[in-house]
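Dear Dr. K.,

Following up on our conversation at the group meeting, I've run the structure prediction for Serine/threonine-protein phosphatase from Polarella glacialis. I'm pasting the input sequence below exactly as I used it, so you can double-check it against your construct before we proceed with anything downstream. Let me know if the numbering doesn't match what you have in your notebook.
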Amino acid sequence: MSTLPARALGLQEGYSQEQWGPWRSFGLLVQQAMTELSWQDSAATLIALCKEHSRSQEGYLSKDEFVAILLRYPCCNAAYHSVFFELFDRNQDGYLSESDFLGGMLAVSPLTPHKLESPSGQLRMQFIFLYYDANRNGRLEVEEVAKMIEHIQQLRGKPHTDAMVDATALASLYSGAFGFAAFYDAAQKRMLNGTSPLLRTQQDLFETIRLSLSSEKSSDAPPASGAAHAPQRSHEDPLASLGAAHGSGGGGSCLVSAPVSLPQACLAGSPGGAPHTPTPTQSPSSMARPPARSNSQPEYWRSGAGGDQGVQALALRVVRKLMELSNQPIADWRYSLQLVTSREFLLLCDTVVELLRQEDSLVEVPLPCRVYGDIHGQLLDLLEFFNAFSWPDKRRGDIFSMNYVFLGDFVDRGAYSCDVISLLFSLKILYPSRIFLIRGNHEDRLMNVNYGFHADCVRKFAREGEDIWERANDVFEFLPIAALVESAILCIHGGIGDSIATLDDLRGIPKPIQVVGEINERTTRRDRMVLDALWSDPTDNDQVLGVHASPRGKNTCRFGPDRVQEFNRRNGLKLIIRAHECVQHGYEYFAAGQLLTVFSATNYCNQHDNDGAMVVLVKDERTGEVVEHAQVIKSGTVDTSHGWNDQQFRAPSPMRRTGAEGH
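The predicted structure tokens came back this morning:
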């Protein structure tokens, strides 16, 4: 635990050490965050800027000098210049050191991730805490927590009338004062959701400087704050009227604008589990509410969109538009596809979540049905499947005689995440009893903030992209985690791991279903089962029995053929169909034919040259047995050169190789 005096941390004397928790040295965090984000060029530029404007005291910026920089390079609304100065001035001496200036601008940049375990994320959390700790007494009073919750809801476009109730409920879960340790713990455990958009400038200062210099060289007008062509695509300030009042302590009464950002820990939904996580009966209402409320219609409907007929028409338009485009040369539309507006996307989300809310975590699916594996934003492959075999459509498809199961990983990696979601949500709205969407491990904020979905939302919807991403992830928490076909075949994204023993383990999981970030001593069995359902894999081949550590990390495992056979015997199953791993031919059996992996995207990330497959399940008329038939599209059938993102957060997972293939 730090032994620095409270004053050095930007806090009043008397700050209780027991409340510091994970608070770390500011200087160390700044250095580590700069290394983490490769921020050396930005730092050099900002240090030079600091020296240039530092006149009253060498190496330090006065308030007027700091404001002069932000006026010269407008990265945020002028109403917040004083807000940031007071916040960055940690020792409250009226000056910012170079470290104060660098650390502050890095923390509030819209390009800085909000991953709590990273140095940059921890730096942001410290500033957010200080921002709402208006009197700098080292703890958040209930009123200050309520102000934060109110701001989060306002940024989501949902004025929050129960902020004080929620804040009281949250604070009551912690003994003693609600200090930084409690604040950080509540965010980690997802009891306090949506902190990522808080405390952001509209543009990154370094990028504003770069664009300004570039514009001056080309004789163009310098970019204004929030210019549409800025790389990070800023938001308009939704709460500018709150910006005028701000106390000298920095915090509670004013909200800094929330631009597009790269959040990793803003997790919505109702947490579960004790003692630190509220139970359904005690959870604060802001954490329990899904994106759309069953007692009220979405705003889009209330504004005259035609109610249920309006959203049905929208969903049908999406499907028919893609049906039309799929018959045209792909080069004509692949670079400029825009299926829906931001408002329409939110309407799809608000509508489909009500359908998902009514489904159990284990959905029952009748025969016959088609089962798709990972799509990963690869719309071009999905359209090829529909054209080659059948569309889930009433005009030119088999939707009245066929059910469809999609086994998750709809987003990330590929270039069309938003479009795939628009299509799948539209199909679910049109045919709610025929289309079944199962959750994959990428339908999770902690994953899709990095692997393409977040970036696609921002690219397609600009200022509204952040809200689109948040809302879609809210919907993902209501997806089922498994499907049972004709009481004979379990369809699941990852597998059974070592924690799932019966079908009942997958039933009745309260929604929204949250995915824990890591396994620790407080992790419940239910949380482990959700992780296994989304993340686990079979072992390398049928000769590797038992349960083994997973190369994906400590949160899940690999399970052997003996586990599969015992699970199927105990539950009266013929087969488990799962996705989650790329396989050479699009489908691959395991456990002597009792488990089948299916992967529906070809040439994964333009690297694996794999085929894609979908599985059709029907009943054999002679025997009455459920039988499966794989339908395949070969690698190269679809030109995926633009379908996959060029830059990947991490290299794609290696292809699954069985022992029979020599690996």
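Two things stood out to me. The radius of gyration is 26 Å. Residues 157 and 190 are 20 Å apart (CA to CA).

Best regards,
J.T.
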